[in-house]
Amino acid sequence: MTKWQNRLMAGIHWIGQIQSYMKKAFGASEAISRVRLAPRAIAQSDKFQGNWSKGNSLRDFVCLFLVGAGLSVAIAACSATTSAAKPDVKLNLVSFSVTQAAHDRIIPKFVEKWKKERGQNVIFEQSYGGSGTQAEAVIKGSQEADIVHLALPLDVNKIQQAGLIEKNWESRAPKSSIVTRSVAALVTRQGNPKGVNTWTDLTKEGVKVIVANPKTSGIAIWEFLAFWGAVTQTGGDETQAQTFTTNVYKNAPVLAPSARDASELFFQQGKGDVLINYENEVFLAEQNGQKLPFVVPNVNISIDNPVAIVDKNVEKHGTKEVAEAFVDFLYSTEAQREFAKLGYRPVNPTILEEVANKYAPIQTFFTAQDLGGWDLLQNRFFNDGALFDKIWTSSKA
After folding, report:
1. Strands across the sheet with 89-96, in order?
2. pLDDT tens column, 314-331
3. Which of 18, 112, 217, 359 makes the best surface tag, with the fewest CB within 10 Å?
4. Over the stretch 62-90, which tens digit does the pLDDT of each residue have?
5. Cα separations (Å) of 24 from 15, 21, 59, 69, 322?
6. Structural contact between residues 256 and 212, judged by C-beta atoms closer than 8 angstroms
7. pLDDT at residue number 260
8. In 3D, which of 373, 281, 311 has the Cα closest to residue 96?
9. How many whole angstroms separate alpha carbon 206 and alpha carbon 377?
């Protein structure tokens, strides 16, 4: 028997008890006189029901009144119980490959908070993969994401251009919707036998560099921009930048689909002399007992990871409120502290101050905006037939 059925049965039992007590109270022949109803009240009662006798009419009237009151209480109790039991809500999070460890820590904290405050269970469906691949899956509908946390704003822009996210999505969350940051790190073999310490060292003869594919991976785009900016942001011109970037890709034997795939090539398969990876991935590997030799170049790019609500999908699923709450939670000190524990550079100023000493200092720190902004970068470098395709083809000629 359910809780509301139990309450209903208790209410009916209570009504029966009232009826029993009232029969006893009105059974004596002098009961009416003890009630001492005012003449006006009795008259009103007679007028309300017609020609009632003093005894039976009044007894029946009071009993009926109490029965009605009891039923009202019982029904209200059942109704309150029923309305308090909210159905579970399902939230679909689509993110890039390296964020899973962080979300595995953060999501349970949000679920607990929402349950405590709203009395509702939140069930997360999660998907992780290369950022570009994930964006395409959302656009095609094979992933009906309520929220996307991707490697770069360019991928969110693609979803917006497909009509799934409203314009000006950057303004709907703090920090222009950037929820985590990192920088590029150069991971080497033990002892760094090839002497790789700067971006320039990637062009040395005999150095094999493991990189990812900008068509499918977020880190691959950041890698390319880091190569380019290492020249243009330190006084070089664009011709020099193109030559340098081409020489780096000459030393890249393959293009991995994602950051995780690139890591697997380097660590599990033993390919290459240096792996370009997110700084936070190096920290995570250390926490898992794998201490990696690495260098963070002091000329580096701010790797900005955005979060956004997929408007069309939250409207379809009825999940807008809980989706907005989860995005807000990602900026909280509690969530940002979890990101920082896993090596991300937090965007929450309080947490950034707490952990600033754990990160390598950057002397020249540039952003995608310093290189022209995402619209220009997409058209110039990453569209089909654009500069990256030409550089990759030239590097393998």
Report:
1. 122-129, 89-96, 147-149, 303-309, 178-182
2. 999 999 999 999 999 999
3. 112
4. 343 433 444 354 444 444 444 456 899 99
5. 15, 5, 11, 19, 56
6. yes
7. 81
8. 281
9. 30
Number of Cβ atoms within 10 Å of the Cβ of 389: 15
Interval 174-179 mean pLDDT: 97
Report the 10 Å Cβ neighbour count for 264.
14
What pLDDT does 362 receive? 95
CA–CA dist 101, 340 (Å, integer)? 12
Contact call for residues 138 and 148 (beta carbons, < 8 A): yes
- Scanning the chain, the segments in alpha helix (DSSP H) are 3-27, 31-35, 39-49, 54-84, 100-118, 131-140, 153-161, 218-232, 238-250, 259-263, 279-287, 311-317, 320-330, 333-341, 349-355, 374-377, 387-395
- In this prediction, residue 285 carries a pLDDT of 86
What is the C-alpha to C-alpha distance for residues 101 and 97, in angstroms, rounded to an integer? 9
